TrEMBL record:
Protein name: TetR family transcriptional regulator
DNA-binding among keywords: yes
Transmembrane parts of this sequence: 174-196
Species the sequence originates in: Sneathiella litorea
DNA-binding span(s): 48-67
Record's signal peptide: none
Keywords recorded for this protein, A-Z: DNA-binding, Membrane, Transmembrane, Transmembrane helix
GO molecular function terms noted in the UniProt entry: DNA binding
């Protein structure tokens, strides 16, 4: 009887192995992650569908199958970013914390998210170059922002009632200030480093900036 080679055995076992199960939505998630990197690096105009598909490890046609075109993928990337932020904010359970602690935690989260996700600022800057036209096309855009504004409103109201915060504070204006203080720092970190003559992208300088932002916001709202 002829001996079966090791390679033949391996091929036979491979043929008998059950096919890998497809994870629902896995390809879509890969394309969103790949698109996020490509759009952050090159912007909408410079991004290439070929490169997005290559990084995701899928056929180029799957980009069009799942999203239709590059603009739609870009819009879905924007939407997924804000969904991610809102989900993480909800996980903070701010309503269970005293008002001042809740506000501090929200400010810290906002700063940390921008610090840890350096692709966030470039994508938003690019979308503002396009005058927010893709954001406007997001279905139920209000639902991505109203929960946060509502959460801030409740924090301020609780703080006003217990005497911690002063009255007359506007949730929307406070949200813009919280977001801006971290966003500006990281979106301009290299030019600011050049201007001041030292690196602002170190662990110590980022921690110092974070502490400053938290204190600035809390000092602005307490009595």
């Amino acid at each position: 009887m002829a001996k079966v080679s090791t390679k033949q055995n391996e091929r036979q076992l491979a043929d008998k192995a059950p096919p890998k199960k497809r994870v629902p939505g896995a390809t879509r998630k890969k394309l969103l992650a790949s698109g996020r990197k490509e759009f952050a690096n090159r912007g909408l105009e410079g991004a290439r569908v070929d490169e997005i598909a290559k990084r995701a490890g899928v056929n180029k046609q799957l980009v069009y199958h799942h999203f239709g075109n590059k603009d739609e993928l870009y819009r879905h990337v924007l939407e997924s970013i804000y969904q991610e932020i809102r989900e993480r904010e909800q996980a903070l359970k701010l309503d269970t914390l005293p008002p001042l602690e809740a506000l501090q935690k929200l400010v810290e989260f906002s700063f940390d998210y921008t610090a840890k996700n350096r692709d966030f600022a470039p994508i938003l800057i690019d979308e503002n170059v396009h005058k927010g036209r893709h954001m406007k096309d997001i279905q139920d855009l209000e639902s991505l922002h109203s929960p946060l504004i509502s959460a801030i409103e409740k924090i301020l109201e609780r703080g006003r009632k217990d005497g911690t915060f002063r009255s007359g504070l506007e949730p929307e204006q406070l949200y813009i200030s919280i977001a801006a203080l971290g966003f500006f720092y990281f979106s301009n970190i290299y030019t600011l480093s050049a201007i001041f003559g030292h690196k602002l992208d170190t662990r110590d300088t980022i921690a110092k900036r974070k502490a400053h932002v938290v204190k600035l916001i809390t000092d602005a709202v307490v009595k």
